[in-house]
Amino acid sequence: MNSSTDNVMLAADRCGVLAIDLGALGENYRRLAKNVAPAALAAVVKADAYGLGAVQVSQRLYQEGCRTFFVAHFIEAVQLRPSLPQDAAIYVLNGLQPGNEERAAAIGVVPLLNSIGQIKAWSQTAGRVGRTLEAALQVDSGMSRLGLSPDEVCELLVNPGLISNIEVTTLVSHLACADEPANPASARQLAAFRAISTAFPTLPVSLANSGGIFLGGEFHGSLARPGIALYGGAPVSDRDNPMLPVVRLEVPVIQTRTVPPGTQIGYGGTFTAKTSIRLATIAAGYADGLPRSLSGRGALYFEGQRLPIAGRVSMDSITVDISALAEGALDLGTPVEVVGKHQTLEMMAADADTISYEILTRLGHRYQRRYI
Ligand SMILES: *Cc1c(COP(=O)(O)O)cnc(C)c1O
Predict the structure, then answer these.
(1) Interval 207-227: pLDDT, tens
(2) Which atom, in ligand 1's list, is nearest to the CA of 229?
(3) Chain-centre distance of CA 292, in angstroms?
(4) How many angstroms does the Cα of residue 155 sit away from the middle of ligand 1?
(5) Among the CATH numbers 3.40.50.720, 2.40.37.10, 2.60.40.1180, 2.60.40.10, which is that of 4-16+245-371?
(6) Is the pTM of this model over 0.90?
(7) φ, ψ (nearest 5 deg) of residue 79
């Protein structure tokens, strides 16, 4: 190993270790696959598999039998395509932007068609390349984000020639409130989706994300598309999380000190010690994806002991109150738990006033990543 690599490893070490448990990921895939059977289980690996590494995650899930992968942007599909065998389908949820069609066709990436314009462009591309091209058709069943509107579905039905040259593999729609089982919006969306799908009686259907899987069998369709649940996030709010944790994040202590009463801590001096307290500064901050909104409210953990964040989260560090620990319990370099056995993604997200998805997808690139 040359010295420049050494330096990179050392620097990364100091900023913490992000451990990604591919065994737990595999187990989560198997659990969800069993839950939705006989429907098939896809994997949503957009945003670099929610920050965990799209290539590593997708290859592991391929081993588990996953053959359908969803990314958000075409560029993500371009990057992932060489890492998966050709019998794995890669779908682009956001569809293709004009100009990307021929490249998508050439490398075997499958778009979701979200508008009549996208249908026309893909159909023309099929004409140009001289063969039928696959696509999924996305319809809006009540989220008003992506997919054909009811009017566009009608336009397509009266003019089926629009979709000639295209082999539609799946009819897709997406749920807006699947993580809230008591929310009646999901049943309304299911009814709307079913009504649309009667116009395409031969097409396999896909509606459920992670939350949708736990709404019950009628939501499973032919293909479920979980993301967060695969990565250990809770698919349903206000309920025990049935998934295994996949991510552990530990960040080392880089300095400790004892401060007298009245001492201000951190930017803005927003925290003042009421008594003499002991502090530890750890080597990651908002530039590493630890939200600044944790300032003065979140906590880290050491051997199960909660260590409240004292003052503001800085760009590259966080200061925590370690007075509850025995003197000397934390040495320089001692790893402190950010996410792990004592702090779930959901706990941290609640303190930061966000959701587990945002915590995961923003995990920084200065951590040393360890795949287990
Ligand atoms: C992100 C996304 C998913 C996965 O959602 P999770 O809640 O993470 O399971 C599924 N379908 C679509 C269309 C998405 O955008």
Answers:
(1) 999 999 999 999 999 999 999
(2) 9
(3) 20
(4) 27
(5) 2.40.37.10
(6) yes
(7) -70, -35
